[in-house]
């Protein structure tokens, strides 16, 4: 039974064993996500269980198309709410989250690229700042990992990561502008 | 299982156990999968994957699922019990109704014979005419029999056959002779023959036969 069938079955029967089957495969990833925000092992474990409790009702009433990404967003929101309740300032990189939400929005309309698109891409590469251009080139064209790029460029590992994420985002914006401009 | 594989990749990535190509592949995947990226970030912060912790979590989930399963079983059984109770209640009522429907009309029909049943037997009188008898009540033998039956009292009923003979002259009964019954009944029967009925014919010679009808 696939995820969609499990979702439908749970919605129809409300059987926790079905929801368990749906939820269990994501638990380890969810724990990681919770830890990222809550930064406490106990709290993260409780959060994973508490989210399951909330899903018991939510999944019976809500229509969910893509369970994986829905679960990710739900978990993130749960953790942020948790932090707000505890009056702790969530340490979330705004750039990174912006990138993620944009990435989600544009993930669906990925077109096939033609020759002229690659020319446009080269043009757009020139518009990136030095760090971003270098990191994007090394990551996407030379297929190097973050660690190698950090070693080669002397940038901090986190800087490499955000440079690639931001570079990718800027490239996308640039490409879209060119497309609309023609 | 795919997620166990993913978890071991995260573990290897965080602990630097991956080749450069593998690292690149995972990083690239994570760029398109924010869920994976967040999880990697989390485990990086925790400085590794604690498998024990995660299996404890799986256990907690299993226990939680188990709670509902047993609750549901309990609910199911009590629901089942209720259904059985209701079904047997309905069945009981149906059987009662059927019994009532079967016996009520019969009780009504038997109400007529109720008085006779008290005596555990019913009886009737029939007239057997002997040779030479040529009399007949003006009212008819049937009425005579019925009269006997209706006017009998338990105390003076005739429980054996009575032989009767008399002569009718000018409508009057004379030379009346009754045998086979006791004195008291004899007087009672004489009164009936002489005063309650009119006779036609001349010579009477008949039996009043007592028949006991067993009802039970």
TrEMBL record, chain A:
Q: A Pfam family name for this chain? A: Sigma70_r2
Domain RNA polymerase sigma factor 70 region 4 type, by residue range, is: 119-171
| Domain named RNA polymerase sigma-70 region: residues | 22-89
Q: Which UniProt keywords apply?
A: DNA-binding, Sigma factor, Transcription, Transcription regulation
The protein's matches in Gene3D superfamilies, at most eight in alphabetical order, are given as:
1.10.1740.10, Winged helix-like DNA-binding domain superfamily/Winged helix DNA-binding domain (1.10.10.10)
Keyword Ligase included in the entry's annotation: no
Q: Which region is the signal sequence? A: none
Q: Has the keyword Aminoacyl-tRNA synthetase been applied to this entry?
A: no
The family note in this entry says: Belongs to the sigma-70 factor family. ECF subfamily.
| Name of the protein in question | Sigma-70 family RNA polymerase sigma factor
What lineage is this protein's organism placed in?
Bacteria, Pseudomonadati, Bacteroidota, Sphingobacteriia, Sphingobacteriales
From TrEMBL, chain B:
What keywords appear on the UniProt entry? Membrane, Transmembrane, Transmembrane helix
**Recorded superkingdom:** Bacteria
| Keyword Transmembrane helix included in the entry's annotation | yes
Transmembrane segments annotated in the record for this chain: 82-104
Mind telling me what this protein is named?
Anti-sigma factor
């Amino acid at each position: 039974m696939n995820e969609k069938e499990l979702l439908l079955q749970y919605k129809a029967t409300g059987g926790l064993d079905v929801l368990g089957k749906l939820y269990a495969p994501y638990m380890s990833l969810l724990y990681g996500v919770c830890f990222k925000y809550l930064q406490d092992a106990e709290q993260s474990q409780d959060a994973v269980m508490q989210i399951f409790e909330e899903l018991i009702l939510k999944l019976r009433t809500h229509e969910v198309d893509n369970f994986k990404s829905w679960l990710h967003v739900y978990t993130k929101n749960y953790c942020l709410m948790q932090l707000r309740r505890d009056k702790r300032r969530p340490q979330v990189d705004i750039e990174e989250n912006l990138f993620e939400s944009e990435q989600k929005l544009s993930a669906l309309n990925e077109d096939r690229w033609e020759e002229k698109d690659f020319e446009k891409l080269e043009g757009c590469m020139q518009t990136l700042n030095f760090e971003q251009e270098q990191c994007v080139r090394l990551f996407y064209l030379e297929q190097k990992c973050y660690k190698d790029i950090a070693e080669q460029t002397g940038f901090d590992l986190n800087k490499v990561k955000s440079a690639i994420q931001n570079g990718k985002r800027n490239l996308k914006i640039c490409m879209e502008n060119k497309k609309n401009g023609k | 299982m795919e997620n166990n594989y993913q978890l071991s990749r995260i573990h290897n990535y965080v602990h630097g156990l991956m080749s450069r190509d593998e690292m690149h592949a995972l990083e690239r995947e994570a760029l398109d999968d924010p869920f994976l990226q967040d999880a990697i970030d989390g485990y990086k912060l925790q400085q590794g994957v604690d498998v024990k912790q995660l299996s404890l979590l799986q256990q907690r989930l299993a226990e939680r699922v188990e709670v509902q399963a047993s609750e549901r079983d309990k609910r199911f059984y009590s629901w089942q019990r209720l259904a059985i109770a209701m079904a047997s209640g309905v069945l009981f009522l149906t059987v009662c109704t059927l019994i009532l429907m079967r016996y009520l009309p019969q009780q009504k029909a038997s109400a007529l014979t109720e008085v006779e049943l008290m005596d555990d037997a019913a009886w009737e009188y029939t007239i057997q005419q002997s040779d030479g008898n040529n009399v007949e009540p003006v009212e008819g033998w049937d009425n005579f029999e019925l009269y006997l039956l209706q006017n009998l009292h338990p105390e003076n009923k005739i429980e054996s056959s009575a032989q009767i003979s008399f002569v009718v002259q000018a409508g009057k009964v004379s030379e009346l002779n009754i045998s086979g019954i006791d004195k008291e009944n004899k007087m009672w029967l004489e009164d009936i023959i002489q005063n309650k009925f009119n006779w036609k014919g001349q010579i009477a010679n008949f039996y009043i036969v007592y028949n006991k009808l067993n009802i039970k």
